[in-house]
């Protein structure tokens, strides 16, 4: 199950099947999507999303008991993959910043999950990897497309070919994790980062996220044009004027909801 809660302006999605290493089922994707619906609705007051997990491990991928029921049933598997892809796209394309906090095992589908997040905090006991090849499987939730974009094609293929696990420090060096922190400090570090984001201008955060995602697929000239258009739209709103006034008055800005 996915616990959907609020901590001030931070919306929290917590994977909550620690006894099953937070393995994901159809219902978990539906619950994540419902949580994003709640956080993204106008007037919600949520300015950042924290994706975390209870227990010793973040996520080891899909629930094998459920996966076995779809072996040989291509229509059922296709429906499940469409649901998983749609939910992960919601994370990647959310207008809100999405921050992941991961500990222990971050494997297969768990790795694919964090690839859809904007900023990743990794505890020093975290281990990242993809083991699909060991079971004759192909990554099903986007790793073949997102992982090369993050770590480069050679490192991505090495992880998928070998099935090996890398530690948090290596993940940070590769750009797979943004921060590697002591396990005891993981929750506070990720929550504090989200709380800082909650003080920022929501339209500015949304624009930066969209533009950075677009940069992966657009030619430079097209991307720069989109950036200019975003700047013009942003300056028509109230936040830039408030930001400049706050700077001049040497106070913290008070951005609109």
UniProtKB/TrEMBL annotation:
Name of the featured protein: Enoyl-CoA hydratase/isomerase family protein
Organism of derivation: Amycolatopsis silviterrae
A Pfam family of this chain: ECH_1
């Amino acid at each position: 199950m996915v616990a959907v809660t609020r901590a001030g302006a931070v919306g929290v999605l917590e994977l909550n099947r620690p006894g099953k290493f937070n393995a994901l089922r159809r219902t978990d994707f539906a619950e994540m999507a419902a949580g994003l619906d709640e956080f993204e609705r106008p007037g919600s007051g949520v300015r950042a999303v924290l994706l975390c997990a209870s227990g010793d491990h973040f996520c080891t991928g899909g629930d094998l008991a459920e996966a076995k029921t779809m072996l040989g049933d291509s229509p059922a598997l296709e429906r499940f993959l469409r649901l998983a892809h749609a939910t992960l796209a919601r994370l990647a394309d959310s207008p809100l910043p999405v921050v992941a906090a991961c500990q222990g095992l971050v494997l297969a589908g768990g790795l694919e999950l964090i690839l859809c997040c904007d900023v990743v905090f990794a505890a020093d006991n975290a281990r990242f990897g993809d083991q699909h090849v060991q079971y004759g499987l192909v990554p099903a939730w986007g790793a073949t497309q997102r992982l090369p974009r993050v770590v480069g094609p050679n490192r991505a293929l090495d992880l998928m070919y070998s099935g090996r696990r890398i530690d948090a420090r290596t993940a940070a060096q590769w750009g797979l994790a943004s921060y590697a922190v002591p396990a005891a400090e993981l929750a506070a570090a990720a929550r504090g980062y989200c709380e800082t984001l909650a003080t920022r201008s929501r339209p500015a955060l949304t624009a930066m996220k969209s533009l950075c995602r677009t940069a992966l697929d657009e030619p430079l000239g097209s991307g720069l044009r989109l950036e200019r258009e975003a700047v013009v739209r942003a300056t028509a709103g109230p936040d830039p004027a408030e930001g400049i006034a706050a700077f001049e008055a040497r106070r913290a800005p008070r951005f609109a909801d």
